[in-house]
Amino acid sequence: MKFFLDTADINEIKTANSWGILDGVTTNPTLVSKTGRPFKEVVKEILEEVDGPVSLETVSLDAEGMVKEGRLLAELGENVVVKIPMTPEGMKAVQVLESEGIPTNVTLVFSPMQALIAAKAGASYVSPFVGRLDDISGEGMKLIREIKEIFYNYEMDTEIIVASIRHPMHVLEAALIGADICTMPFAVLEKLFKHPLTDKGIELFLKDWEKVPEKPF
Ligand code: E4P
Questions:
Q1: pLDDT band at 59, cuts 50/70/90?
Q2: How far is the CA of 129 from the centre of ligand 1 (A)?
Q3: What's the topology of domain 2-209?
Q4: Which ligand 1 atom sits closest to the C-alpha of 30?
Q5: pTM, to two decimals
Q6: Which of 12, 25, 28, 104 has most ligand 1 atoms within 8 Å of its beta carbon, as the pocket-test mutant?
Q7: Other beta carbons within 10 Å of 211
Q8: Which of 83, 120, 191, 194 is catalytic?
Q9: d(CA 94, CA 200)
Q10: Contacts (Cβ under 8 Å, ≥6 apart) of 33
Q11: Of 171, 163, 173, 164, which is closest to residue 189 (Cα–Cα)?
């Protein structure tokens, strides 16, 4: 499973990249606004840093506007993926952009049928939001299982980006289901490293190392 960071914070992206486990980035207007920085400045840095797809979101509500914005975003870098909301107008835009070789990521997906529609429209990626479903007492991971099954049934190439991740269990379940990608906040990625027995083990080894005579380092 590929690991994407769901952030527009360049420092978080650089840190994850230094660990060698970053496969891509997803952003949205909220994440970009959190940086407080000019859009183009932030995006340029992200596109240069990331050796993989970077999703940038459109904000128009009509297909024509989305296509226009999508083309402008795609000009910013070869690894740009245009994020399009799951609406009928959005699906029109997906067809146009994909036919021009611009990959799209259909976002704000909350049902299996929305995912099927996005795949039928030709989207390269689909982003079901598990955390926001859990927030309203829905079952986020059930959605991922169902989309996975549907895409398998019809041999669809659209990749599933499990989005709106809240904690490591979401990531574990996404991997067990076999989702293609998980896009997560930096804080969740950091937590994936953690295990108390790892920390305890390091502490013990260091303590014992002190007792070794004539150490080489
Ligand atoms: C996905 O691409 C979205 O940016 C993101 O996962 C939304 O997550 P949130 O529900 O934490 O805002």
A1: very high
A2: 7
A3: TIM Barrel (3.20.20)
A4: 12
A5: 0.96
A6: 28
A7: 7
A8: 83
A9: 50
A10: none
A11: 171
